[in-house]
Amino acid sequence: MVLIVIEHLEECVFPWLYFEYKNAVRLIGRSNLLFTNVCREDDIKVLKSIAQVTCKSSTELFKEPIVLDPQAKEMLSPEDAKKSTVAIVGGILGDHPPRGRTKTMLTSKFENAIVRSLGPKQLSIDGAAYTAHVVLNHGIPLKEIKFIDGITIRRKIGGIVHEIHLPYRYPVLNNKPIVSIELLEHLKRSLNVNV
């Protein structure tokens, strides 16, 4: 079994990030997931209630992991499960367009990492963790996983339709994109706020 590690790279665990992290745990299972580089006391407390957490960075804990980086030239495959017992996902919320922060903040910190991509588009953190888990621990090739590009959340408020577009790639399970329901509700609530 390949352990999926999410290396926390944001300043703190704010709601959007928490909802993606929590969904990753729900999808993969608490015993199959480890959060690293979580050092703020409040963040440790919040994440320990849902998963395994350490303040140590993955660079301290693992010497030859698989690192998932959108800029990697080689795609993740089930055969990679024979090369390492750990796959690391960057706990970093995506920019649109991407700025290559995974490479700068994570991949470049390892000397002997096996660097792989999940495809040409950015995935959500929970989507990337789920996809890596399915490929490495269930032996399903990337080409057999269905994805959807982008999700638009709409809410009608006072006769006006407001939209939030999430321009990321999401794996699909049972004909639905894998996305945190709590995150979607959080974003819908944010549409009620007068800006």
Structure, described:
InterPro entries: SFM1-like. GO terms for molecular function: protein-arginine omega-N monomethyltransferase activity. This protein is of the alpha/beta class. It has one domain (3-145): Alpha/beta knot (3-Layer(aba) Sandwich). The chain is 28% helix and 26% strand. The chain has helices spanning 15-28, 41-48, 58-61, 101-105, 125-138, 181-190, and strands at residues 3-8, 33-36, 52-53, 66-68, 86-91, 114-116, 147-157, 160-173, 176-177. The strands form two sheets. A six-stranded parallel sheet has the order 3-2-1-5-4-6. Strand 7 and strand 8 (160-173) form a beta hairpin. Helix 1 runs parallel beside helix 5 and helix 1 (15-28) runs antiparallel to helix 6 (181-190). The chain is globular. The mean pLDDT is 92.
Characteristic key phrases:
single chain; 195 residues; Alpha/beta knot; three-stranded antiparallel sheet
